[in-house]
Specification:
The complex is a heterodimer.
Chain A lengths: L1 H26 L7 H20 L2 H6 L4 H8 L5 E9 L4 E6 L8 E12 L2 E11 L3
Chain B lengths: L1 H63 L2 E2 L16 E2 L2 E3 L2 E2 L1 H9 L1 H11 L6 E7 L6 E6 L8 E10 L2 E10 L1
Antiparallel strand pairs in B: 1-2, 3-4, 5-6, 5-8, 7-8
Classes of the chains: A alpha+beta, B alpha+beta.
Chain lengths: 134, 173
Amino acid sequence: MAPRGFIITFDALLAVSLLFVAALIMYTQTFQPVAPRGVYLKQVTLDVMTVMEKTGRIGIAIDGNSSAVREIMEATGESVCMQLTLKSSNGTSIATISKTGCSDYGKELQVAIQPVFYNGNSYIAKAESWYNKQ
Amino acid sequence: MDDLNKTSKAQVWTIDFLAGATAMSVILLFFILLWNNSANRWNNANEYRMMLTDAVFASEALIATPGEPENWEMFGQINNSNISAIGLADGRNELNVLKIEKLVSQNSSSYSFVRQRLGLQKYEFGFRVTDLKKNVTYYQYGQFAGGLNKSVIFDRIGIINGSAVILHMEVWK
């Protein structure tokens, strides 16, 4: 009788353990609203590109002064990382300017590309944004 | 002996039954609580997602569209059925000072109407136009929660008279 009882108890423990594992998995699930964050990131990327272009800051960056562009990038929220790449029309890289504290890419990359006409030459400005890893 | 066996068997069965029922009840209760907790978290996440979506689209309407009709700021009262949409921009991200000033001057009388036209009927909202470092507030409209309620807070970047500004927006419940 005793071994049989032990086996039944062991079975029950195993079953209950499995239930608790399942419950633990369910409990630790996080519900992250993903889609709207991507939309917001896209909008911020377009905001930055539009404002930089309309206020002439991209032209200043082409001339070699990145501070005006950086000022706009730093004004985006803490969770947003950003990098601006400027190229001439033949693909030669002119400048790559990153927001402070942003190194490698994180979550949900968004890209905006804008052709820029400045001092009689054509350039390509590419803004890449992503959410900080923290 | 027969009597003794019957008594023992009946007692064991009762203890087994009680133990099983108790274990089952505990497990059932645990799963009901877990289900309730999960449902609450799902509802909160869904509510936040809806609030964020509405807030993002409202900010887009403000910063990227002129409104409908485009010259709505010329109307005496904003609270006017002829105004079907509210926007503050002449072109994308180019904020029109006259539109902002009109809105701010009728803050209390137009608030409910503007909220409705921006699709934020279910929430309260407010926005501030500041310099890039947020040291100077140029304009302020609506109501702010002060961080006490469930809220969605974010910044957009615009232009006023050639200068870059921040449109800080808070939507809350």
